[in-house]
């Protein structure tokens, strides 16, 4: 706006200061009217201009409509609410696990479209697809994983706090401000009525689109929001209004400004105040409840959760990033955190679950709101004097702990090293358990039904833990705990780095072992340790025997199966029938009556079958040797092969013991350790110097062993046994494959059928 006027400087001489500063209501721009009159009469004139600019401001969008409907639901004051129905319908958002349902929906739409275009009857196909869709929807939403429920709770089209409030209340008036300078839109508070009774409602409000989410700060309150909720709590407590809170936030807003304004103090003040309010408090988790930001309005007498809501101290992504160093482990973290409604009810953190319709991620809130309204009415039946005690006991009973349980080694890697108290098991109890287990296995053996191996493994692991505990207690009582722990730590470090044990460290271990062997009998718990160790050995032996029997039984079944396959072959059966017919046609009643040609033919057929059986066994990766048994009664002067075998085993044991005694000597022992170190240092491509050192050490070790063995009588025993074996072979009958030598002619002779020896220690008839 601009205006121009002429004036004379002389004309203002008679004007007072109050006249010049007088309001513009008496003139223009603070200049009195009479002064303007004088200016026009002045002789001298000078032109000047006064310019005033009005800044154009943003037009305020008043929520009150021009034609307010007095009969609107919630009363005429509801027109003041900024929460209006969206002009544009929200865009559908499909979660990853819902894609099969979307595909079925598209199929149903396509079939209906085809039916409309062609005029054909596709009602059967449509009904079938709809039934399939309903069944898939039911199966999907009744078997949701924790991370899928997290995604549903975060769904952008999920009903918000105000959606539920306007659905369950007859009237609702929103109250604003924390009386500290700001109204945080992320927390909404107000008074509403249900069935004529007034309630104070407060809750986290997320946006329904991007614009609203930015305005509501994605449902993350600042300290002003929590102080606004605190003010309304005092208001409700003063007037006796029950408080109903709705929780739906990923957490309190954690920016620098919020911390400067006292975010932690605001949350803590709310927690303390809520435990002292004398009105009933009901909290309902309608989406996600994140950490202290949710708990700041969640200290209630009853905590209810929608079926697909979650309540957690840290989001699955944050937990996965901390524990597994990657957010991709969020599904695993969600399962471990126990954040779903059903899990929290089992832990007695939540008091009830409000069911949701199938597809509750973006369902109409009217159905769910009916369930919420019913739950609120049921939760208000509390006596006022007992409210404080009830609220305190609810939170006092949450949680639990266990003492004395061994820690998983994987979890113990980054834990502070300390002695964990281990629950001591009574010796009598564990002995009774072992006896009971052994008796069960004996009874099962008689009934040919073996018990599961897991019980035996569990008992062995339990005994191992007990033996370790008893051993550690014994080491502590004899004063060797520090040295034992130190050496164990050094060995663990070597094992983790794949290093060879240094001779000096090995000497320390040998010395500590000798001291332990000498000192353990003096420990107070030595008898208990020995008893448990004996039980452990017995159970380990039982387990080893059971595994060996199982392997032998399995192998025998496989062998019998292979033998049956060979013997049932048509060509083998044909040979057998032909040979049997020839024997019957010869008219001989005994083997000796058969002619030479038929005997040789029998031997040939037998050898062919033995070779077939041997090939079948070789297919099972077995070492096979076909042996023909000889006459049992041999000459008394002749040494049997079994005796020679026993002597060979005894000599092998003596040689082995002699070598071990030689190796235990300090000189040879050090040479062997040095050889290991040289080989490890040389690696896969040793240089010439390393090769020479290794060769020299190997030569020295061989010479020391040879000298030690020559000094003993082992060489003489070896030569003597060698001569005895040669003599036995010469005196024994040769196996030329003839039928006459295989079967003796004497009537009182005893025969044994051929057998197949497999491997070293396994023989099957």
What would your notes on this structure say?
This protein is of the alpha/beta class. Helix content is 54%, strand content 10%. The protein contains 28 helices and 15 strands. Strands 5, 6, 7, 8, 9, 10, 11 and 12 form an eight-stranded mixed sheet that branches. Strands 13-14-15 form a three-stranded antiparallel sheet, with helices on one face. A two-stranded antiparallel sheet has the order 1-4. Helix 3 (99-118) runs antiparallel to helix 4 (123-141). Residues 1-43, 627-639 and 733-765 have low confidence and may be disordered.
Q: What's the gist of this structure?
A:
With 765 residues, the protein is α/β, with parallel strands linked by helices. 54% of the residues lie in helices and 10% in strands.
Give the helix/strand class.
Answer: alpha/beta
In terms of quaternary structure, the protein is single chain
Radius of gyration: 48 Å
Uncertain regions: pLDDT < 50 for 5+ in a row?
A: 1-43, 627-639, 733-765
Pfam family, one: ACCA
GO cellular component, one term: acetyl-CoA carboxylase complex
InterPro entries: Acetyl_CoA_COase_a_su (IPR001095), ClpP/crotonase-like_dom_sf (IPR029045), COA_CT_C (IPR011763)
Organism: Carya illinoinensis
Keywords:
765 residues; alpha/beta; 8-stranded mixed β-sheet; 3-stranded antiparallel β-sheet; 28 helices; elongated; disordered N terminus; disordered C terminus; transferase; ATP-binding; acetyl-CoA carboxylase activity
What's the helix and strand layout?
Elements: E1 2-7, H1 17-20, E2 27-28, E3 31-32, H2 33-41, E4 46-51, H3 99-118, H4 123-141, H5 146-153, H6 161-168, E5 171-175, E6 187-194, E7 197-204, H7 210-215, H8 223-239, E8 243-249, H9 256-260, H10 263-274, E9 281-290, H11 291-295, E10 302-306, E11 310-312, H12 316-323, H13 330-337, H14 341-346, E12 352-354, H15 365-379, H16 384-396, H17 427-446, H18 453-477, H19 481-497, H20 503-519, H21 526-567, H22 570-586, H23 596-618, E13 624-627, H24 641-664, H25 666-682, H26 688-711, H27 714-731, H28 739-742, E14 755-758, E15 762-764
Parallel strand pairs: 7-8, 8-9, 9-10, 9-11, 10-12
Antiparallel strand pairs: 1-4, 2-3, 5-6, 6-7, 13-14, 14-15
Helix pairs in contact: 3-4, 5-13, 6-15, 8-10, 12-13, 17-18, 17-21, 18-21, 21-23, 22-23, 24-26, 24-27, 25-26
């Amino acid at each position: 706006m601009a205006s121009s006027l002429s004036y004379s400087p002389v004309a203002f001489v008679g004007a007072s200061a109050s006249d010049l500063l007088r309001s513009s209501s008496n003139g223009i721009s603070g200049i009195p009217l009479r002064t303007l009159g004088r200016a026009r009469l002045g002789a001298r004139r000078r032109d000047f201009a006064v310019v005033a600019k009005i800044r154009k401001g943003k037009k305020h969008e008043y929520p009150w409509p021009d034609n307010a409907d007095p009969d609107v639901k919630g009363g005429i004051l509801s027109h003041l609410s900024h929460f209006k129905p969206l002009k544009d319908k929200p865009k559908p958002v499909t979660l990853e696990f819902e894609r099969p349902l979307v595909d079925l929906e598209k199929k149903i739409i396509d079939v209906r479209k085809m039916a409309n275009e062609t005029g054909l009857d596709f009602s059967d196909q449509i009904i079938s697809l709809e039934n399939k869709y309903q069944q898939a929807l039911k199966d999907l939403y009744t078997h949701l994983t924790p991370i899928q429920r997290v995604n549903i709770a975060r769904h952008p089209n999920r009903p918000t706090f105000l959606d539920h409030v306007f659905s369950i209340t007859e009237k609702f008036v929103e109250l604003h401000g924390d009386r500290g300078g700001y109204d945080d839109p992320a927390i909404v508070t107000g008074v509403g009525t249900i069935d004529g009774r007034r309630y104070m409602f407060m809750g986290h409000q997320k946006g329904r689109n991007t614009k609203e989410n930015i305005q509501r700060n994605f449902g993350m309150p600042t300290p002003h929001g929590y102080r606004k909720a605190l003010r309304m709590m005092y208001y409700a407590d003063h007037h006796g209004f029950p408080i109903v809170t709705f929780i739906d936030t990923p957490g309190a807003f954690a920016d620098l400004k919020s911390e400067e304004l006292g975010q932690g103090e605001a949350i803590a003040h709310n927690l303390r105040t809520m435990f002292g309010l004398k009105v009933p408090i009901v909290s309902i988790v309608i989406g996600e409840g994140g950490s202290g930001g949710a708990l700041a309005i969640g200290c209630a007498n009853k905590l209810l959760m929608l079926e697909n809501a979650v309540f957690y101290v840290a989001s699955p992504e944050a937990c996965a990033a901390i524990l597994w160093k990657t957010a991709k482990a969020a599904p695993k973290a969600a399962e471990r955190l126990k954040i779903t409604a059903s899990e929290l009810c089992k832990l007695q953190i939540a008091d009830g679950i409000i069911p949701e319709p199938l597809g509750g991620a973006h369902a109409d809130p009217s159905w769910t709101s009916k369930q919420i309204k019913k739950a609120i009415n049921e939760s208000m039946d509390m006596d006022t004097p007992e409210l404080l005690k009830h609220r305190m006991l609810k939170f006092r009973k949450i949680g639990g702990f266990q003492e004395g349980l061994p820690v998983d080694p994987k979890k113990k890697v980054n834990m502070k090293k300390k002695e964990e108290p281990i629950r001591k098991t009574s010796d009598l109890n564990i002995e009774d358990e072992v006896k009971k287990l052994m008796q069960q296995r004996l009874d099962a053996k008689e009934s040919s039904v073996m018990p599961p191996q897991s019980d035996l493994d569990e008992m062995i692991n339990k005994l191992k833990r007990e033996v370790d505990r008893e051993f550690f207690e014994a080491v502590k009582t004899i004063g060797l705990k520090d040295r034992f722990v130190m050496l164990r730590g050094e060995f663990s470090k070597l094992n983790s780095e794949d290093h060879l044990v240094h001779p000096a460290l090995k000497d320390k271990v040998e010395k500590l072992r000798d001291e332990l062997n000498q000192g353990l009998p003096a420990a107070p718990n030595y008898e208990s340790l020995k008893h448990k160790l004996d039980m452990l050995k017995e159970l380990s032996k039982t387990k080893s025997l059971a595994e060996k029997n199982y392997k032998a039984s399995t192998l025998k079944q496989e062998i019998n199966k292979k033998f049956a396959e060979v013997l049932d072959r048509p060509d083998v059966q044909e040979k057998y029938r032909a040979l049997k017919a020839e024997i019957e046609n010869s008219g001989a009643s005994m083997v000796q009556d058969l002619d030479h040609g038929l005997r040789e033919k029998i031997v040939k057929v037998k050898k062919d079958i033995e070779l077939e059986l041997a090939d079948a066994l070789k297919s099972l990766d077995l070492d096979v040797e076909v042996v023909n048994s000889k006459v049992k009664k041999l000459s008394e002067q002749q040494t049997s092969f079994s005796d020679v075998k026993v002597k060979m085993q005894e000599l092998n044991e003596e040689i082995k013991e002699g070598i071990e005694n030689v190796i235990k000597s300090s000189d040879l022992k050090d040479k062997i350790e040095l050889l290991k170190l040289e080989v490890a240092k040389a690696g896969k491509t040793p240089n010439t110097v390393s090769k020479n050192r290794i060769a020299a050490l190997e030569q020295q070790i061989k010479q020391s062993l040879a000298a030690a063995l020559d000094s003993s009588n082992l060489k003489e025993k070896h030569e003597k046994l060698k001569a005895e074996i040669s003599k036995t072979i010469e005196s024994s009958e040769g196996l030329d494959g003839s039928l006459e030598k295989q079967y003796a002619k004497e009537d009182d002779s005893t025969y044994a059928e051929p057998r197949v020896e497999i491997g070293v220690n396994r023989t099957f008839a």
